[in-house]
């Protein structure tokens, strides 16, 4: 004995070839192709920056991980703002790591105002470190 299908598979209706497309037709559901102009300029601006030297990137990674771990400890210990410290540690990590930057960008894309503040904080850190290292004597 076979079990009857609850939703039988039927082919989708195809538009008639002879009918011209209506101009007042509603937009079709689905992804809309948006030109990534803003994202391209952001990536281009980030790539135009001078890279940090290896020793400084290692120091920034260590500081970022330490702040991130203090934030994790702050989730259970009183007196330390855990989530804020984790966000600051992740922002510091994203200065030296593209993987951390992409992770933060994807996870904070829901909250554009918070992402803008984190991006400004990250830019300030990178600019200060870059100016400190590449200053002319």
Order of helices and strands: HHHHH
Q: How much strand? A: under 5%
Shape: flat
Low-confidence stretches: none
Helix content: 55-70%
**Amino-to-carboxy terminus distance:** 88 Å
Radius of gyration: 25 Å
Number of DSSP strands? 0
Structural class computed from helices and strand pairing: mainly alpha
Mean pLDDT: 76
The helix tally amounts to 5
Largest sheet: none
Can you offer a commentary on this structure?
The protein has 137 residues and is mainly α. It has a domain at 52-133. The chain contains 5 helices and no strands. The termini are far apart. The model has no long low-confidence stretch (mean pLDDT 76).
Question: Which characteristics define this entry?
Answer:
137 residues, mainly alpha, 5 helices, 58% helix
Present the secondary structure layout.
Layout: H1 37-48, H2 54-74, H3 82-96, H4 98-107, H5 112-133
Helix pairs in contact: 2-3, 3-4, 3-5
The gist of it:
This protein has 137 residues and is mainly α. Helix content is 58%, strand content 0%.
């Amino acid at each position: 004995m076979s079990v009857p299908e609850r939703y039988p598979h039927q082919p989708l209706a195809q538009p008639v070839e002879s009918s011209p497309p209506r101009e007042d037709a509603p937009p079709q559901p689905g992804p809309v192709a948006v030109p990534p102009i803003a994202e391209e300029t952001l990536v281009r601006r980030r790539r135009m920056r001078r890279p940090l030297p290896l020793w400084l990137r290692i120091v920034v990674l260590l500081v970022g991980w330490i702040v991130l771990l203090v934030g994790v400890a702050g989730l259970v210990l009183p007196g330390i703002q855990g989530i804020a410290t984790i966000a600051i540690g992740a922002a510091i990590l994203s200065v030296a790591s593209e993987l951390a930057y992409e992770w933060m960008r994807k996870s904070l894309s829901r909250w554009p105002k918070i992402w803008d503040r984190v991006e400004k904080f990250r830019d300030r850190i990178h600019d200060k470190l870059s100016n400190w290292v590449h200053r002319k004597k």
